[in-house]
Specification:
The complex is a heterodimer.
Chain A lengths: L1 H5 L3 H23 L8 E5 L11 E5 L2 H9 L5 E3 L4 E3 L3 H25 L2 H4 L2 E8 L14 H14 L28 H12 L17 E2 L10 H8 L2 H20 L2 H7 L4 H27 L3 H25 L3 H23 L12 H10 L5 H24 L3 H4 L5 H12 L5 H27 L4 H29 L6 H30 L3 H7 L5 H21 L4 H19 L5
Parallel strand pairs in A: 1-2, 1-3
Antiparallel strand pairs in A: 3-4, 5-6
Helix pairs in contact in A: 8-14, 9-11, 9-12, 9-13, 11-12, 12-13, 12-14, 12-15, 13-14, 13-18, 15-17, 15-18, 15-20, 17-19, 18-19, 18-20, 19-20, 19-22, 19-23, 20-22, 22-23
Chain B lengths: L1 H10 L2 H27 L1 H8 L4 E6 L4 H8 L3 E4 L3 H9 L5 E5 L8 E8 L2 H25 L15 H35 L2 H7 L4 H29 L7 H26 L2 H19 L6 H9 L7 H27 L1
Parallel strand pairs in B: 1-2, 1-3
Antiparallel strand pairs in B: 3-4
Helix pairs in contact in B: 1-9, 2-3, 2-7, 4-6, 7-9, 7-10, 7-11, 7-12, 9-10, 10-11, 10-12, 10-13
The chains are: A mainly alpha, B alpha/beta.
């Protein structure tokens, strides 16, 4: 109803006109081939040079003498003739030379295919075979042995037709090849297919199951890796509309807060959970509809797509529920929403970029979506690794959301860190504080996991040594805060009476955080490796040491906070983090 | 009035949020670039990360392919027996095994490559072997008298360079414009919904003065972010040529976007509809700029790399557009306020 009121009449017309116009313009851009680096490299070309119809190249025709002068005076980056590329020693020229060379190499392959017989233009054919990998129990590879593969290779070589004397080149290897010397190979057909693929520019990304299948023949110069960016972005098409829908959900919520309409709801005979779910459900419904429509358009597996994207939708709504509950002003909402969109996008896209390279990419559901379209089976552990953290965050948001659903919390202006502690206070069961502390410790795990992923991402911008140090420090600080913030709240709100209670809650928090952390690690390792590493990590006494470190550090933070008061909390976290950081550094052998 | 707006922005830590968002964007872009390079240019990743491979060779162990592997610093182990090679592979001592047939001096060479049955590892190994395989392929072509041109060119891998200058730097320079527009909408719709706009208008200030103060504040915030990014990129060793012109262009685009946002906000009055329409308008305008030569994105990229074919003249074209929009804004604003 609300949406109908807002987006009826002239508004619908405006939206339709804008969407149609954006669609037409986007289609025209798509037809031209989207190139952001238009005219980026300045390329001087001699009259006999090959054409360079790539929008990145700003082509400047010039005869040899003029080209040389332009190159020296830096008015062009490189100079291309029929057989050579001339360039300078500076970076700009070197990058341009490499870009043009890469482009011309593709043209060269087409020229070779036109001018020479296939067996001379593409003389190397490589058959890919997969063998059981070390420490792998289950294998989809064929059960052949290496000896059989080699024996087959020898048989093929023997049965290959030996060229008749008139087919053998008379003047040695340096003589130019001619079609007369063609000796057809059984793998020529594969070369023709791959050449056709090279010549047809594919605009829609292809979902390929593997880089190369078992016994597939590859031609090195025609081999193109399945770069997943386009596929990941295609999978991201599912998420983008959900962002828009969830922003409407947040706006509606904040509007009701500002207009005090929420007070009427609070006085109605419905529970906070019913109010929140009631507000969320229509938007979740729209989001699921989007998933269904996109899956049908892309011819995906509908049930699997819903299973993959439902946790993502719930996760996004959980974040936006947090935004709606915490903030009161529009500007706050805009900026926090932007931070959330950026963070969520990064969390979803970044791991998926490494699909097929690193199995940790399964933390992102986009990886599952890419694999679904590639026709690759998804295991339960892979699914759980991506879905469980998101579902837990949804549970956390709903738990806290229902507890803070009161006028005082929703309509008050306070800094974010104060509101977070206030939310914990409202969410805690004051009669069973140890249980609440344990539940929070478990529910914080996915939040910590996602924040640490963010830290690792940010550290990519820094020099390696600094990045490692910063990564360890920030991750440790995040963990120490996650383990101690509930105890801090109990101290601040005077829910604990003595140090013994503080120590008990600190121990409970550390132990359950540790258990949750190990469960997540267990899931990750089940995805990464079936046996050895998992056994090593979970075997024997090795677990007691990190558990004791976790407990000791949390106890340090909580004790300092108890003794010196909540204002000393930043200092207490720093002390606990230093201790924890030193332990982590010793683990990676810094002190050896 | 401008100071009042800036104070409001400072209070809400707007700049901090904006920079945090852009920092995230830059970081995630770096990771995405790494993801692309792992596939597209694994050689450079391998060299940087010192990724080594242990490759077992069967058959013609004196082949030029073995030389190409060794030149790439891969560890090559020759085997005369397939069973022994397979045992080494299964014990994890080899990443790949290659069977190279005897070279007859002409014709096709049919090689067999054996990889582990693990999708991730096999893909990585195959990508790392691509370059030595291409080198061997070119050797075979030359042997057969096939001339492949432009093989002597080295240069530097361009992926990172292109990505940084054509995507990251333009995003960093224009994202403040997007934020500025959003800020103007929030500010206007908040004044409308809290009824403070009426109070302001009852004072001796015109709607144009109110609008101008909001736009100037948002443009200033945008300009500060751009300066910060230019300085930070400089500290990181990325040279930005024509920084002054880039800054002017960014300010012009920010002002243009802020003016568009102002009109949208005054037309729709409430934040929800204004933000939605503004997002669509920006999307449309962004797509339309693709047909301008050079587009703002391409212009920033080319200015930043010191392209001699672009300069102040192209930047001033956008100033002219801004002047036109500034000239018609009072008319539109008055009309929208009256209605």
């Amino acid at each position: 109803m609300r949406l109908r009121a807002r987006f009826g009449g002239k508004m619908v017309a405006a939206v339709v006109v804008l969407l149609v116009a954006a669609g037409i313009v986007s289609f025209l851009v798509y037809q031209q081939g989207m190139v952001l680096a238009k005219d980026f490299y300045i390329v001087g070309v001699s009259p006999d040079a090959p054409g360079l119809p790539d929008q990145r190249f700003h082509v400047v025709p010039a005869a040899a003498a003029e080209g040389s002068a332009l190159l020296k005076s830096r008015n062009i980056d490189i100079y291309v003739t029929a057989s050579k590329i001339y360039y300078r020693g500076d970076d700009r020229s070197q990058y341009a030379a490499n870009a043009v060379k890469t482009y011309l190499e593709k043209l060269e392959l087409v020229r070779l295919a036109d001018e020479y017989p296939l067996n001379q233009a593409f003389p190397l054919r490589v058959e890919i075979n997969y063998l059981k990998a070390p420490s792998r129990d289950v294998s989809s590879a064929s059960a052949v042995t290496l000896a059989e593969i080699v024996s087959r290779a020898k048989e093929e070589a023997a049965s290959a037709s030996t060229p008749s004397p008139e087919e053998v080149p008379e003047s040695g290897p340096s003589a130019p090849a001619t079609p007369k010397q063609a000796v057809p190979s059984v793998t020529d057909e594969v070369v023709k297919q791959q050449l056709a693929g090279l010549q047809s520019s594919r605009l829609v990304p292809e979902f390929k199951a593997e880089f190369a299948e078992n016994q597939q023949i590859i031609i090195p110069s025609l081999m193109n890796p399945p770069i997943p960016l386009a596929q990941v972005l295609l999978a991201f098409a599912y998420i983008l509309p959900v962002f828009f829908i969830s922003i409407f959900f947040t706006s509606g919520f904040i509007e009701e807060k500002l207009g005090r309409k929420i007070n009427i709801l609070m006085s109605a005979p419905v529970t906070p959970l019913q109010v929140i779910i009631g507000k969320m459900l229509p938007y979740i419904g729209y989001s699921l509809l989007v998933v269904i429509v996109i899956t049908l358009i892309l011819h995906g597996n509908l049930l699997l797509a819903l299973a993959i994207f439902l946790p993502v939708i719930l996760f996004i709504f959980a974040i936006y529920l947090g935004v709606a509950l915490q903030y009161r002003t529009y500007r706050d909402q805009t900026f926090f929403s932007l931070v959330a969109v950026t963070g969520i996008t990064g969390y979803l896209v970044f791991p998926a970029m490494f699909v097929g390279i690193n199995d940790l990419s399964y933390v992102s559901p986009l990886t599952l979506a890419v694999q679904m379209y590639r026709g690759v089976d998804i295991t339960l552990y892979q699914y759980m690794l991506s879905a469980v953290p998101m579902l837990l965050i949804f549970v956390l948001a709903l738990t806290v959301g229902t507890r803070v659903f009161n006028e005082e919390y929703l309509l008050s202006f306070r800094p974010l860190h104060v509101k977070v502690r206030e939310a914990i206070y409202y969410a805690m069961d004051k009669h069973h504080m140890a249980v609440s502390t344990a539940v929070f410790a478990l529910l914080f795990i996915p939040v910590v996991f996602m924040m640490e992923m963010g830290v690792i991402t940010i550290s990519f911008n820094l020099p390696r040594a600094l990045a490692l140090g910063l990564c360890i420090f920030l991750c440790v600080v995040i963990e120490e805060i996650a383990k101690s913030v509930v105890v801090l709240t109990t101290i601040e709100y005077k829910l604990v009476k003595n140090w013994r209670q503080v120590a008990l809650l600190a121990a409970v928090s550390a132990v359950f955080f540790f258990i949750g952390e190990k469960l997540l690690l267990f899931m990750s390792l089940k995805v990464i490796s079936e046996s050895l590493f998992t056994t090593a990590v979970f075997a024997g006494n090795v677990l007691w040491v990190p558990l004791l470190v976790h407990a000791a550090c949390t106890l340090v933070v909580c004790t300092i906070t108890w003794k010196a008061g909540p204002k000393s909390y930043p200092l207490a976290v720093l002390a606990g983090s230093v201790l924890h950081g030193l332990y982590n550094l010793s683990l990676i052998g810094v002190f050896k | 009035m401008v100071l009042r707006e800036i104070k409001a922005l400072r209070k809400e830590k707007t700049i901090g949020f904006a920079i945090l968002i852009q920092f995230f964007i830059a970081s995630f872009s770096s990771v995405i670039l790494l993801g692309i390079m792992v596939y597209y240019d694994p050689g450079s990743i391998g060299q940087n990360a010192q990724v080594g491979l242990d490759v077992g060779v069967l058959g013609n162990t004196k082949s030029n392919f073995v030389t190409a592997l060794q030149q790439r610093n891969f560890h090559v182990i020759a085997f005369d027996n397939a069973t022994r090679a397979e045992t080494a592979f299964k014990n994890g001592r080899l990443d790949a095994i290659v069977y190279i047939p005897q070279d007859n001096g002409t014709g096709v060479v049919d090689m067999k490559l054996v990889l582990p049955d693990m999708d991730a590892q096999a893909t990585l190994v195959l990508m790392l072997l691509k370059q030595p395989m291409e080198q061997y392929e070119n050797y075979l072509r030359t042997r057969d008298g096939v001339v492949v041109r432009y093989q002597d060119v080295r240069g530097k891998p361009f992926t990172t360079y292109e990505f940084l200058y054509t995507i990251i730097i333009p995003i960093l320079m224009f994202f403040p414009a997007f934020i500025a527009g959003s800020m103007v909408i929030d500010s206007i719709s908040e004044e409308v919904e809290n009824k403070t706009l009426d109070t302001l208008l009852s004072a001796p200030v015109s709607i144009m003065q109110i609008a101008a103060s909001k736009i100037i504040a948002s443009v200033l915030v945008g300009a500060i972010q751009c300066v910060l990014w230019i300085v930070l990129l400089g500290f990181n060793g990325f040279s930005i040529q024509n920084a002054g012109w880039i800054l002017l262009l960014s300010v012009e685009v920010t002002a243009l976007v802020a003016l568009v946002a102002l009109m949208v906000a005054l037309f729709f009055r409430d934040r929800e509809r204004s933000q939605f329409i503004y997002s669509l308008v920006i999307l449309l305008l962004f797509a339309l700029t693709y047909f301008i030569s050079p587009s703002p994105f391409a212009l920033v990229a080319r200015l930043a790399t010191g392209d001699p074919y672009v300069g102040g003249l192209q930047v001033l074209v956008y100033l002219a557009m801004l002047a036109v929009l500034v000239a018609i804004t009072p008319l539109v604003t008055r009309k929208l306020t009256r209605s």
